[in-house]
């Protein structure tokens, strides 16, 4: 479960906005290990400024701390929901990339240990 802090700037934090943010964070939970109880997400939503001639520009920021890794994303869109969707997608991409790199590192380490046990030189060394 990801603990969540939601902050609203220049808009009112309604129940519908809070529920939509919660839904997006629940979708990110599949990238977080179940045993990680320190997962924390800070979300800030709001209007950027009041100086736009036509329409409002909404901003969504998300800071996610998972297992010692910090992931940050920000988006500005015409609607608050589309800004939140884009932020969620960027965070999901970052976490998935990190997990893939971590697994790859474990596999490379395993290949090196296997090669050492067989008595063969480092398997990924370039030949000159």
Describe this protein's structure:
With 128 residues, the protein is α+β, with helices and mostly antiparallel strands. It has one domain (3-118): Double Stranded RNA Binding Domain (2-Layer Sandwich). 41% of the residues lie in helices and 26% in strands. It has helices at residues 15-28, 80-118; strands at 3-9, 40-47, 58-66, 69-77. A 4-stranded mixed beta sheet has the order 1-2-3-4, with helices on one face.
Topology of helices and strands:
Layout: E1 3-9, H1 15-28, E2 40-47, E3 58-66, E4 69-77, H2 80-118
Parallel strand pairs: 1-2
Antiparallel strand pairs: 2-3, 3-4
Task: Write a short abstract of this structure.
This protein is of the alpha+beta class and 128 residues long.
Terminal CA distance reads 51 Å
Derived structural class: alpha+beta
Q: Which strand order does the major sheet show?
A: 1-2-3-4
Count of all domains: 1
Instruction: Give the percentage of residues in beta strands.
Output: 25-35%
Task: Give the name of the CATH superfamily.
Answer: Ribosome hibernation promotion factor-like
């Amino acid at each position: 479960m990801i603990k969540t802090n939601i902050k609203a700037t220049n808009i009112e934090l309604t129940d519908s906005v809070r529920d939509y943010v919660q839904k997006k964070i629940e979708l990110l939970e599949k990238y977080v290990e179940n045993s990680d109880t320190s997962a924390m997400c800070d979300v800030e939503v709001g209007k950027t400024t009041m100086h736009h001639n036509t329409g409002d520009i909404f901003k969504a920021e998300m800071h996610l701390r998972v297992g010692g890794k910090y992931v940050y994303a920000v988006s500005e869109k015409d609607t608050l929901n589309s800004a939140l969707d884009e932020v969620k997608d960027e965070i999901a991409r970052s976490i998935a990339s990190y997990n893939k790199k971590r697994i790859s590192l474990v596999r490379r380490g395993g290949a090196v240990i296997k090669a050492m046990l067989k008595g063969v030189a480092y398997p990924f060394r370039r030949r000159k």
